[in-house]
Specification:
It contains five helices and three strands, in the order βααββααα. The protein has about 130 residues and is mostly helical.
């Protein structure tokens, strides 16, 4: 139950604020990542839903899966100082950074291979002219 007088949001307001479609927000709801109240067919999102959506989208920008973002968000416990949540997030960031570094090395190797192939083909063409 939400707090009386607390700010609420419609799906349209959240979709505009975060630049996502209402369908995206409904998808997150279907998966259990958001839990708006209902008034007939109308969804009523509260501040915690808004924050969860913001964190999910931030995680997505960082390359985390929805499940990874949800796992980290679900660890939130202000009574324990959130140390476990921060450690988990830090580990995920390290893993993601390593994954991107590996991908960057692969891209650099591919670029080198493409440049080599390009040069060889250009030489062959130059010899035929």
């Amino acid at each position: 139950m939400r707090e009386v007088g607390a700010r609420t949001y419609t799906i349209s307001e959240l979709s505009k604020e975060f630049g996502v479609t209402p369908r995206t927000i409904r998808f997150y709801e279907e998966k259990g990542y958001l839990a708006p109240e209902r008034s007939g067919n109308k969804r009523i999102f509260d501040g915690s839903d808004r924050v969860r959506l913001k964190l999910i989208l931030r995680g997505k920008r960082l390359g985390f899966s929805l499940q990874e973002s949800n796992d980290i968000i679900s660890m939130y416990d202000p009574n324990k100082g959130n140390e476990d949540q921060y450690r988990s997030l830090l580990n995920k960031i390290h893993e993601k950074r390593q994954q991107i570094e590996d991908q960057l090395q692969d891209i650099k190797a591919m670029m080198s291979d493409l440049a080599e192939a390009e040069n060889k083909i250009a030489q062959v063409l130059d010899q035929k002219i």
